[in-house]
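Lab notes, practical 5.
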Amino acid sequence: MEPRLSLVTLSVRDLALARRFYVEGLGWPASSASTDDIVFIQIGPLGLALYPEEDFTREIGAAATWTTPGIVLAQNVRSPAAVAEVLAQAEAAGGRIVKPAHKADWGGTSGYFADPDGHHWEVAHNPFFPLADDGALQLPRKT
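Output from the prediction step:
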């Protein structure tokens, strides 16, 4: 299998609230593929989908159970100062700061926010993982 992640779908309690947070609050443009039932957002080479919890559960099936398995979505930024700027924008949009911008033990700067549904996002500047011109993360290659 090719190592690729194409789309991340977040289960949301209130689609209108999630749309306001991500589209109006963070300024991430909704795709024309969005409908009243789902919101699609292009985030670099990936797609982000916001989908109502009850529809998500129905689509997966009655056996679906929701837990929080310790997943964090991350956005790498181009400078240490940008970490605090993005966190402030997320808070102004209705997010909750989980951990303010700080120097991280691993040598970069990071901070965390939660969206209105509690999905956790890390905002990080990692000097060891540069960003390409298009924003794509450049992990070091195996030697």
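Observations recorded by the TA: Residues 70-143 form a domain with the 2,3-Dihydroxybiphenyl 1,2-Dioxygenase; domain 1 fold (CATH 3.10.180.10). The mean pLDDT is 90.
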